[in-house]
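Quick start: what a row looks like.
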Amino acid sequence: MKVLSVNAVSKIFPNGLKALDEVSFSAEEGECIVAAGSNGSGKTVLMNIIAQLEESSSGSVTVQQGKSIGLIFQDADAQILGETVEEDASFGPRNAGYSKNEIKEKVDSSLTSTGLAHKKDSPSRLLSGGEKRRLAVAGVLAMDCDILIFDEPFANLDWPGVKQVCSIIAQLKKEGKTLIVLTHELEKILSLADRFLVLHYGKICFDGDPEEGLKLDLNKWGIRNPLVAYESIGDLLW
């Protein structure tokens, strides 16, 4: 069942720059889509339009009735609003007018799902990079969002942080959430993808099976193919 349809969406800025050029794709319920693209490909603009943070110049985005979209920004610090972990996760449901009991139930559930229950009284700003990303997810889950969009979820994370975020995405997929992961770091997440999209200069160049996508010349779209063998120190150079 389709929960999200992006229909011929274009975005042209006042200076004439065309960031998106009639982009169309859909997402099925419970599907995990990895969308890759180099800087300037239009990934973030597309994300903002889907999340209704920005208007398209033409085209439309349709979300199945009753479904809601949550966005996890590339900069997790920009999404932290509460002094403590618990306070931050409760920000959304509190402002949505939920009762005190409902807020506690939703926050407890979201922090447990993201592995942060034991840190509920910790200062939000003192969390590690991976924990901050997980807290951003907790805030979205506390709002009962069905569709989650991750914008460059591995940005500025060390190896433990990357593993934490991948674990969360895998768990959300298991729970049946619809996921869209926007990244150029395919080697970290493509194994979880049901679909693989490639965005280049505002156009979708590939939409299909991840294994088929890896057979293409991704270099021409500014993406490094992750299927690279390292056999000696001489290979360890991008």
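That is the whole record. The CA atoms of residues 76 and 179 lie 18 Å apart. The first strand starts at residue 2 and ends at 12.
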